[in-house]
Each structure stands twice: as C-alpha cells, then as structure tokens.
C-alpha cells in the first residue's frame, strides 16, 4: 500500500515460455505475423514516445489539442464525480488535460507495465492531492474486473490514443462488448479514434523522415535477440508501412532483404527475399463507422469532438440500458 496510490495487482506475467510459444505460432503461419504487444519492451516504449513527437505523427498532438479545447464540453457530457478509469494509462499524460474540468471522485490507471504505472500514478496523486488515485496492474485486453474500493458515482472508461485501432474490427467489437459488461447502464466510454483520411498523411505518419517508426519496428527483432535469445540479424530486414485502403488500415511489416532464417528456441523459420513479417495493423474509422461498431457492442453515442482538419475524433458513448 502506498500513502497516495492504492495498488491492485491483477496481473501474473505470462511465462517467457508461453510468449515464445506465441511468437513461434506467428512465425510459422502464412503470412508470418507477430502481435504488436511485442513492440513494447523498455526500448520500444521509448521509441513509441519519440514517434509521438515526430512532426508527421499527427495523432498524439491532435488528440491532445482536442482534449484541451473540448475539456469543458467533455466535462459537461461526462458529469462530475465519476470514477474515471484509464485503460493503458502509461504516463497518465492525456488525462491531466481533463482532470480539472472533469473533477472525478476517483481515478484508476490500468496498465500492464507495473513500474511505469506506479511511477506515473504516484506523480498524478502528488500533483492532484484532491483526487483519490488507484492503480491496477492488469492486461485490459483480457477479461478483467474493476478492483474493490473505488469511490465515485459512475464508472467512465477513458481509452485514448486510438489504441482501439490496433485491434481488428472484430477484436475491437469483442473488446467493447467486454467493456460494456463491466459498466452499468449509463456508464461512459471516452475513446480516441484515428480517422480515415488522405493516404499521403497516413503514409507519412508511419514513415517519418527521422526513421523513428522504422527503428520502432526493427526493435522487435532486437527484442527477439535480447529477451528470447533468437538468432536474427535485424539489418537483414527493412521497415515497410503503407495504407491499405480496402481494409482502412496502416500495415507495418518487416521485409526480408535476402533468403534467411530466424532461429527461436529450437525452431528455424525461413524467409525468402522480399517475404514479410506483418507486425502491426492500425485501423482508421469514419465517425459513423466507429459509432456503428460501438453500437453493435452495446454503446450509444452521446457526443464527439474532432479537430478542424478532421484528423482525429474523441467519442463519448454510454452503455445502453
Ligand atoms: C499505439 N498505437 C495506437 C500506435 C498506432 O498509431 O497504431 C502505434 C504505432 N505504430 C507505429 N506508429 C505508432
């Protein structure tokens, strides 16, 4: 127990063996793939933070500008004294743009990265002494329950960053169905969703000139070497990211520069020259398309806010009765 933050440990980390098993299933598949969760070791998280600072990567600064500009309207829609639950809270940076206006009774940060979660919620508790702060170490993409002892009148989930876009639409719907089950009728969801737009803007955002997104993608292979003792030479792959208009998604791949093999545990996975490892999808939605998806999961739209250039959208929805 911390003097400022009530900590709830709901996560037993997967054994390295089962993660390596999961990697091997993807490497043996046709086409080859890995889950985007493997990006986020310490170096990957640092590179992601650096991506958010790149001039081409508009989502972070656009979402923050919308939160700043719409804070009082959002507060009006959400109401005071809510129990605000941030999924994937990370550095708890974006929620700071809302706290004064929203004045929730209680804040719960949910994140899988224990140390990061504790540091950031402690900083939040210090900076907002009037706020009851909880931290839950949990994998929110798996079924979970809210911890005991949260005060507040109504739970409102906050899921910024368009992380919903890293699920397929079917996974996103299943995730929202699970979330709806955790909320009472009238419980809220404040969610950031990246919008469909001109493909040149999208392609640039995932191919920044400084090469940070490429480094983020290639770090996956470095990580395979560091954490899973894989035999792989990252320089023999290159970063590829493009907008797939039919699927409304950015695809990220690592493309093999030559015929080669990756060895993981006792298995060898062969890549022909030009063959790719599909490392991430980032789906983009229209406002109506996302409202429809959330509606199928049991949420009713209440309000939404976009920027002037219609790059990004923040939706407020409530669980239907
Ligand atoms: C975390 N997620 C919403 C980011 C995105 O845009 O899909 C991850 C990312 N991948 C490459 N750049 C950023």
From TrEMBL:
UniProt domain Histidine-specific methyltransferase SAM-dependent: residue ranges: 20-318
Q: Which InterPro entries match?
A: EgtD, EgtD_Methyltrsf_superfamily, MeTrfase_dom, MeTrfase_EgtD-like, SAM-dependent_MTases_sf
Question: Would you say which domain of life the source belongs to?
Answer: Bacteria
- Give GO terms: molecular function aspect only: L-histidine N(alpha)-methyltransferase activity
Q: Which GO terms describe its biological process?
A: methylation
Top-level class of the enzyme under EC nomenclature: transferase
Q: Does the keyword rRNA processing apply?
A: no
EC number per UniProt:
2.1.1.44
The UniProt keywords, alphabetically, are: Methyltransferase, Transferase
Keyword rRNA processing appears in the UniProt entry: no
Query: Protein name, please?
Result: L-histidine N(Alpha)-methyltransferase
Which organism's genome codes for this protein?
Billgrantia ethanolica
UniProt lineage:
Bacteria, Pseudomonadati, Pseudomonadota, Gammaproteobacteria, Oceanospirillales
